[in-house]
Structures are given as C-alpha cells and as structure tokens.
Design a protein that fits this description.
heterodimer, A: alpha/beta, Rossmann fold, Nucleotidyltransferase, domain 5, five-stranded mixed β-sheet, 15 helices, 14 strands, B: Rossmann fold, 7 helices, globular
C-alpha cells in the first residue's frame, strides 16, 4: 500500500450512528485519507453468533459487532485496519468491545483501536489514534526500519517539553531538551542544542522527522520529510532504545499531558490506547507534587524511592483533589518521601486502571517519556504489575529518536 | 481427577455430580467460604473489599461496573485453574445463579475461550430430558483425563 492509498477501516460498533458522533468519525477518517466500511455479514449468522463467538450478549447490536469482527478475521471483509467503538459507560458493550479487540488482535495482523465515545467525542480527539492506525496500515515498510542511517534529526514537540536529537549512522550524536513555551521557538532552541552538541550544521541534515503535539507546525517550519503522530514514532523509538525490536514488547509512555500504552510486535504497534482526559495520570501531576513539596521535578524520584505510599491516604486520582489529599497528608505530618511515593503510585495506578486494560501486557515492559526519569515511577509500576520495568537510556528522547530513525528511510529514497 | 469448573458457578447439583465421578468441582461456594472465614478482613458480609474490583480489572475494563469486577476477581482465577468445564444454559435460579447478567456473559465467554474439554447443554424441561442431561454429564466426566498433579499423588 502506498502513502496516497485510501485506508479501509472496518467500523465495528454497536450503533455509533445513534449517538450523534458518526459525523465526527467520518470526519476524522477522511482527514487521514481513510474510509470507514461496515463489514458485511449474512443475516443468519446473528442467530448463533452469541454461542459461536462465546458471549451471549443481550443487545442485538453487540451481536452484530461480534459478527462483523468475525467477518474481518475470516477475510470476508477486505480492510486494512479496525476501529472498535461503543458507548462510554455501557457495561455489556465494554465487555464485548474488549473481547472483540483481543479476538481480532489474536487472529489477524490488522491494527486495531478501540474507543468508548460520548456525544461530546470530536474528530480532534480521535485524530492521533486514527492517524496511527492508518500509518501502521500504510507505512509498515517504514516502521519495519531497525537502524538509522545517514545524518538525520528528530524533533518531538511535546505539550510540556520539546526534545531534539541528531543521529548519524545509528548513533545519537547530539540532543536537546527544553520546556515548550512557543512551539517554533522551543523547537529551534532544542534543535540548536542538538546540532551544537553534534557539531553539525542544519543544512548538513539529510532528513528531519517531527512528532508530538506541535508536529505539523514545526514540520512545516523545518521542511520535515516525516511528520508523524507520536504513537507509532514513540513506540519505534522505545523498542529501538531498549534493543527490543524483535518479538513482543509493551511500551508505556507517560508524557506531560497524556499517556500511551502500546502493544508492539516486531517493532510495529498492534493495539494501543491513549489517555488524555485526566491530568492526574500524567507527568503534570508529578510536576505539581514536586512544586508543592518545594523540590525540583528532577529530585522527586529520589525522594519517592525512599518513601512508602501506604502511609498516605489518597482518595482521588484527580489532579485537584489528589493534590489536596497530599497536602492534607503533609498537614497531618506525613513525610515528603511518603507523599512523593504516593504521587508516583497514584499516577501509575491510574494508568493501570485506565490504560492497561486495553492492551495485553507482554514483557519486556518498556517505560518511556519524561516521567520515566522519576525513579519512583518505574518502581511503583514494577510493584503494581509485579514484573521488571525496563527504562532504556535516553528514555525521555524516544519521540525525537523515533523520528530521526524513521526519517532516515527518506534519505535512502 | 480433573478440576472441573461448573456454570452456574454455585450449582450444588453440578458440583455434586462432578464430585460423584471422582473429579474436583471448582465452584463458588468454596471460594465464598474462604472469603467469609478469612481472619482479619473486616468487610462483612462477604469480606470483599475495594481491592477485589481492582483485581477484577484483569478480566474486565474499568468501565465495567465494580460489582462485575468484584465477582470476576473470584470467578476469573477459578476459570484459570480449571482443566475442564460444564456449562448449563437457561437454568432456573434455584439451579444456581451469579445474580448478574453481565458477569454471566463474561464468565461463560472466558470458560469457552479456554482450550480445554467443555460440555455445554441446556437445562432439561422434562423427565426424559433430565435423564439425558445426567447421562451426558456422566459421559463427559468419565471421558476426562486425570490431571497431571493426580498421577504424582497416586504414586505417593
């Protein structure tokens, strides 16, 4: 499939047409040159699908959802990816959606996203997810790239920080990391830092890749050859840095404003989920905790590993009420170490509850993003999941590294 | 002797049948007994605390209500432990019931998803069907292989 081809995405839902969001789904699909298609089925299948698939759902539209999933897996419907969606807060749909997602992932190689919508879901909310889905379908050859070649740069314009790297012949030779203030100015500053450390000039760079929230703006500004959402780029950067490009891996990326959990096979994302509604599950929560404790964010991790989260009562994951719980604990005499540990545990527990249900955790578990540098976070995650958590070197630079790696595909072209 | 999960998971009749044929029934009653007799946990009447719905996240997403996840925290490990399963559909409440339709759907699905011998049959409506029902269960139980742990025990 070439970059211009229309990606056919199977819409496996239980009636998004009735929820007032269908226009948004169509809109986001067309913005990434994709087309939503309904997998066709024989009507008789619906009578037995409950027993055939295994879930005797009371809602007939959920039975239709299972029948469509089966049609996709059996190749009766020719599609390039699958979008599974159902109403937020419907328990039966949540059960079916989860099992349908696992079923398609187990029995096909199609990229899958699942999402529970409300009537407020917009195309913008779904853009990064849909862009990632179509990228995996269209650019499998590019995502299969395992080594960087030539002289390339990657810039990750994140919500909180902007990161840049310069790579030459599969090695990072320069990097920059600055807070994101004005998107282009911050990207220029980070890029200049990386160029200076690398000892090369911008005009020598053969290809630039951009990712992150500001990817379109900075991509246009720097004439990037690759402008790519952060799900595929970050997972690529993570498995590259962790030296886990073959086989299964799970990537958890805790960023400044959102977090992602991505299940990766041979370096290519299969299932992924992205949390972006609650700041309590992001680096922002840790940033606010550090400020309240009067320490720099870089010192919070060392503090947290000395503390016991059990010593602090946290009744809420909310960034407002959660911080209030921490403040109350401090007022009752809790130590800063315990509070720091509780904050790390809170972020990790929320990611576990909200995100990790949507992907199957397979080792190695690679933790990346700025928050991975706060030692208390990988410690809390390891304790919660009872598995080893791998934090690769330069784990905060994955987006920039992934961009530089993937953009080197354009050097050879 | 095989570990046989039954559905409905608290059916005394199914549990008894499994036991009569020399196998180990995996049933809710025993797990609930473990819960209510656990010393030191003070969450009456079932001693199910806020931790159980969290454990249930292994089987159902956070969007699924806490009552389903709390039940799954008990039923999920039972399904994982099983070496065979018997599912009886359309049974009256007195035969056994989980009390929650969503849990029922997920429980049956997870049993069916396991690669193990499974017998599925409908609850009988007549005497003849009743005899056939017991005959089929007996035939199934007799066909089950011994579990691996068993042969070691026999040697001892």
């Amino acid at each position: 499939m070439n970059d211009e081809a229309v990606v056919k995405v199977a819409l496996v839902s239980c009636g998004s047409e009735y929820a007032g969001v269908h226009g948004e789904l169509e809109s986001v699909a067309s913005s990434v040159n994709a087309k939503l298609v309904y997998p066709e089925i024989e009507i008789d299948i619906l009578d037995d699908i409950g027993k055939d698939f295994g879930i005797e759902a009371a809602s007939p539209d959920l039975r239709l959802m299972m029948a469509r999933a089966k049609a996709v897996v059996e190749g009766l419907s020719d599609v390039d990816g699958v979008f599974i969606t159902s109403c937020f807060r419907c328990a039966e749909a949540a059960i079916v959606r989860n099992e349908v997602r696992r079923y398609i992932n187990k029995h096909s190689e199609l990229p899958v996203i699942s999402y529970s919508f409300t009537e407020r879901t917009t195309a913008a909310t779904l853009l990064t997810r849909m862009e990632a889905l179509t990228t995996i379908a269209r650019r499998r050859h590019l995502l299969a790239r395992e080594k960087q070649s030539g002289l390339t740069a990657g810039i990750d314009s994140g919500s909180t920080t902007t990161k840049a790297v310069v790579m030459r012949d599969n090695e990072i030779i320069g990097s920059g990391w600055v807070p994101t203030i004005k998107v282009i100015d911050s990207a220029t500053e980070a890029f200049n830092q990386a160029l200076e450390e690398a000892g090369v000039k911008q005009e020598d760079i053969q290809a630039i890749g951009t990712t992150g929230y500001g990817r379109f703006l900075i991509g246009e500004h720097f004439g990037a050859k690759l402008i790519q959402e952060e799900i595929t780029v970050n997972s690529k950067g993570a498995v590259y840095l962790a030296n886990s490009q073959k086989g299964h891996a799970t990537v958890i990326d805790i960023g400044g404003m959102d977090n992602k959990a991505i299940s990766v096979d041979d370096g290519i994302p299969g299932m992924f989920t992205m949390g972006g509604i609650c700041a309590g599950a992001s680096g922002r929560f840790l940033d606010m905790t550090a400020k309240r404790l009067g320490v720099d964010i870089t010192e919070l991790g060392a503090l947290a590993v000395k503390g016991m989260e059990q010593n602090v009562d946290m009744n809420s994951y909310c960034i407002v009420f959660g911080i209030q719980s921490l403040v109350n604990s401090l007022a009752k005499g809790s130590t800063p170490e315990d509070v720091a540990a509780a904050a790390c545990h809170s972020v990790v527990e929320q990611i576990f509850e909200q995100q990790l249900q949507e992907v199957d955790v397979k080792e190695p578990l690679i933790l990346v993003g700025g928050s991975s540098l706060i030692e208390g976070v990988p410690k809390a995650l390891g304790e919660l999941l009872k598995i080893n958590v791998l934090v690769p070197p330069n784990s905060h630079l994955i987006g920039a590294v992934g961009s530089a790696l993937l953009s080197s595909g354009f050097v050879e072209e | 002797m095989a570990k046989v999960i039954i559905y409905p998971t608290n059916s005394l009749i199914l549990s008894d049948l499994v036991q009569r044929f020399g196998h180990t029934p995996i049933a809710m009653m025993e797990k609930i007994k473990e819960k209510v007799t656990t010393v030191g946990v003070d969450s009456p009447p079932m001693n199910i605390t806020a931790e159980e719905p969290k454990h249930g996240l292994k089987y159902a997403a956070v969007e699924v209500p806490a009552g389903v996840r709390g039940r799954m925290a008990i039923v999920g490990p039972m399904i994982e432990e099983a070496e065979a399963g018997i599912i009886v559909g359309e049974s009256p409440m007195a035969f056994g019931c989980m009390g929650c339709a969503r849990t029922n759907e997920l429980t049956k699905y997870l049993i069916r998803s396991r690669e193990m011998p499974i017998l599925e049959l409908e609850f009988p409506q007549t005497d003849d069907e009743g005899q056939e029902f017991v005959y089929k269960i007996a035939e199934f139980l007799e066909s089950l292989p011994e579990s691996e742990g068993d042969s070691e025990e026999a040697t001892e």
